[in-house]
Design brief:
Blueprint lengths: L5 H4 L15 E4 L11 E4 L3 E8 L3 E9 L7 E6 L1 E6 L2 E9 L6 E8 L15 E6 L7 E6 L23 E4 L1 H5 L13 H5 L1 H10 L3 E4 L3 E3 L3 H5 L2 E3 L5 E7 L11 H15 L3 E6 L16 H9 L23 H16 L5 E4 L19 H7 L7 E4 L11 H4 L3 E4 H11 L6 H8 L14 E2 L9 H4 L35 H19 L4 E5 L16 E3 L17 H18 L23 E4 L8 H6 L2 E6 L11 E6 L5 E4 L8 E8 L4 E2 L11 E4 L3 E10 L32
Parallel strand pairs: 1-5, 11-12, 11-21, 12-16, 16-17, 17-18, 18-19, 19-20, 20-21
Antiparallel strand pairs: 2-3, 3-7, 4-5, 4-8, 6-7, 8-10, 9-10, 13-15, 14-22, 23-24, 24-25, 25-30, 26-29, 27-28, 27-30
Helix pairs in contact: 11-12, 14-15
Length: about 750
């Protein structure tokens, strides 16, 4: 039922909140004019329709109309009418005359106790600005900005169609990737337009990147403890507005400019056949814990928007003070509406969900994907064809493999931990390395998956720092080096930090090549951290989420474009060629048959494991050897590709390896990559003359298969009689602790 509005039709000065007295117009909003309710503020008929969800604790709610140029100047304050859909779901609506594009606005609520809220951000605002305020409880006052429905010209641009065998994800930050580029005009460096510049796009294309995964680009704020210390939130995992592109990444300071600049970036990337994936934070907001600042959802409907326990207190599996209630009608609608907006209006190709399990926990904290918001996504006609990627852990647990089982790609912490352990420091297991290189999460998993493989990401050491530091060095964050993970499985090779020792430098460079080549020659989708290809360093900071606002500390975030030394240039070339090599394989193809290939005259498998004698691995080999060859058939998927044999030696000593004698994989081979020397040639088809090679300790050698050997009638196809045929059944079960 609609609440009685008669008491507000005639407003006497003595009966209204003090804020009304600062308005030139105050009164009751007219009836909502649009035929269907749409949350947010929508321009229509020389004004705007407004709709916002509110909870049962809100007695009244007002639309506060502010001047877009002088934000403190309030033009009018209008009381909205309230419809009760159910006792727990209420919608406030109204038509506000005289509102135009670029005007600022917000909401103020009065709760059941008569307490008025601060100015609140519309959860569906398309643009948000910020202004310094003298309010001691909140260092910045944000204002929502009325944005016109965009008439952006997409022209003939269409979303790219990237085959899984081609996809290589590049995790980066809108500011960091171009902030130091001399090839991009200074006024747009570090912005959406900077990333849209041909110099940035050419760089990504030449590297072989098909997909950029951008750190949070929805409007976020800086936490108060950082503001007090002169720091700003750099990564952006502190969302204020789920529909507004972050305006600090726009070259034009007007809040609404960020919308078209973001679209310009997406259009330019799409024209270059590069996908755009957004890192999104739907697990918590910037309102922090129960005693945190009030910006929006807490005053509108605290119990519906946030997950609370049976005692009414916040549950928090995020470590950030609150957890969005993705199972409630309002919370779920907010998430799904936001995703559809970015997918349809902004043409984004996919989403990476930060701390994804927190979005599928109930009021008891239990995790369950059945009936969750993720199930809605994979059944949604707009979202189901977008890339959906889960960070599959939160601070309460790691339900490994469960997202993948529901057709949602997930970051593989098993890959990260195992590869670091194999090439740096930590548990070493040839069986576990074989498992993750084959696209599984563990050696006892019996079915393949297509995970997002990574070794480094924004959260943690860079690839270079993994080889230069045993300990984190996060003093610049102002938290006494207490923040960040202590279990990094890194190895400094004898000296903490930079060194002039040529032997140590060589060992470090080999280690980064080992990690990069393992990433590119494994089944699944590779994701690399932007800057790793040119050995970017954060000087041992493994939690570089903030920076000094005044620039008084060295910039550890921005990626270098010029002044690269020989090792940096060599690593960039190595990475480019490793990506090219990968794209001639079917390692990213989820349709690949793992076991015996039907009709093969030699008994070829889609994936096979070869020992140092050139035969199939026997059970005992997994326990006694430090080296193994992974064979991947180019005929095992939907499209033909090259077949490869990737030998890895995770031991410290050189091992003599015999090229395959096993009939299923025997034939002529060409050496295409060797991490011991740093040589890589993705276009090499010259037959290797020798049947044996010396595989140095802690190194990789990759061979392209040039031809096969057809069997004689008397030959047996079984090869090593100790070798089972089933996928990974021969790999011993191991338990490797995972960084979370």
């Amino acid at each position: 039922m609609r609440t009685d509005r008669s008491e507000f039709v005639t407003i006497e000065q003595g009966d209204v909140p003090g804020d009304y007295l600062r308005a030139s117009i105050y009164g009751v909003a007219d009836t909502y004019r649009s035929q269907s309710i749409e949350y947010g503020a929508r321009l229509i008929n020389e004004g705007c329709d407004v709709a916002v969800h509110i909870g049962p604790n809100v007695r009244s709610i007002d639309f506060c109309h502010h001047d877009g140029d002088e934000l403190d100047a309030q033009i009018g304050r209008w009381r909205l009418s309230i419809d009760e859909i159910t006792p727990d779901q209420r919608i406030a609506t109204g038509f506000i005359p005289g509102v135009t594009a670029g005007d600022a606005y917000g909401f103020r609520t009065i709760d059941a106790d008569g307490v008025e809220s601060p100015l609140l951000i519309d959860p569906y605002a398309r643009a948000i600005t910020r202004q310094k305020s003298s309010d001691e409880t909140r260092p910045d006052t944000p204002y929502a900005i009325i944005a016109e429905r965009s008439s952006f010209d997409w022209g003939e641009t269409e979303r790219p169609t990237i085959h899984p065998t081609e996809r290589v994800i590049y995790e980066t930050h809108v500011r960091d990737i171009t902030a130091l580029s001399p090839d991009i005009p200074e006024e747009i460096r570090g912005t959406y337009l900077g990333l849209a510049h041909p110099a940035a796009i050419d760089y990504l294309k030449n590297l072989g990147i098909t997909t950029v995964e951008l750190l949070p680009s929805q409007q976020f704020t800086t936490e108060e403890h950082l503001t007090r210390s002169g720091r700003v939130n750099h990564w952006g995992y502190n969302t204020l507005g789920f529909f507004a592109p972050h305006n600090d990444y726009a070259s034009n300071p007007e809040a609404t400019a960020a919308i078209d600049e973001f679209k310009t970036m997406v259009k330019a990337l799409h024209d270059a056949e590069i996908e755009v994936v957004l890192d999104v934070v739907y697990n918590h907001t910037n309102e922090q814990g129960a005693d945190g600042p009030v910006y929006s959802l807490r005053a509108l409907d605290d119990q519906e928007y946030y997950t609370t326990g049976q005692n009414g207190h916040y549950l928090d599996a995020t470590g950030c003070g609150n957890m969005i209630n993705a199972s409630s009608p309002a919370g779920r609608a907010l998430i799904l509406d936001s995703l559809r907006f970015w997918a349809e209006d902004m043409q984004v190709d996919g989403f990476r969900f930060d701390l994804a399990p927190a979005m599928a926990r109930d009021h008891h904290g239990h995790f369950n994907l059945e009936g969750s918001v993720f199930e809605d996504m994979i059944n949604d006609p707009v979202l189901r064809d977008r890339l959906l990627i889960a960070e599959p852990w939160d601070i309460w647990g790691y339900p490994q493999g469960q997202f993948a089982a529901h057709d949602i790609a997930e970051w593989s912490a098993a890959f990260r931990d195992t590869v670091r352990g194999a090439w740096l420091r930590g548990p070493k297991s040839l069986g576990q390395l074989a498992a993750v290189m084959t696209g599984s999460f563990s050696a006892h998993q019996t079915a393949p998956t297509t995970p997002i493989n990574f070794v480094t990401a924004h959260d943690g050491f860079t690839l270079r720092d993994l080889t230069e530091y045993n300990q984190k060095h996060n003093e610049a964050n102002g938290e006494g080096n207490r923040d960040g993970n202590n279990d990094n499985r890194s190895f400094n090779h004898g000296v903490e930090g930079p060194t002039d020792n040529p032997h140590i430098i060589d060992e470090r460079l080999r280690a980064v090549r080992n990690i990069m080549l393992t990433l590119m020659m494994s089944r699944g989708t590779p994701m690399m951290l932007g800057g790793d290809e040119k050995l970017h360093t954060q000087h041992g900071n493994n939690n570089a989420y903030c920076r000094m606002e005044d620039g008084s500390q060295p910039d550890i975030h921005s990626r270098k474009w010029e002044g690269l030394g020989g090792p940096e240039q060599a690593m960039q070339t190595f990475t480019t060629d490793a990506i090219r090599l990968r794209k001639t394989s079917n390692l990213g193809d989820p349709s690949v048959r793992m076991g015996p290939l039907p009709g093969s005259p030699t008994g070829e498998h889609g994936v096979d494991w070869i020992n140092t004698q050139g035969l199939r691995m026997a059970m005992n080999d997994w326990h006694t050897s430090t080296a193994v060859g992974m064979y991947t058939s180019g005929t095992a998927g939907e499209t033909d590709a090259d077949s490869y044999l990737t030998y890895v030696n995770i031991g410290n000593h050189t091992v003599e390896v015999t090229l395959p004698r096993e009939l299923a994989v025997a034939g002529d081979y060409a050496l295409v990559a060797e991490t011991a020397t740093g040589e890589i040639n993705p276009h090499n088809y010259k037959k290797t003359d020798s049947a044996t090679i010396a595989l140095e300790g802690l190194s990789i050698a990759v061979f392209r298969r040039l031809s096969s050997k057809l069997p004689h009638a008397a030959e047996q196809l079984t090869g090593n009689p100790q070798s089972p045929r089933g996928f990974l059944q021969f790999v011993p079960s191991v338990q490797v602790a995972s960084l979370q």
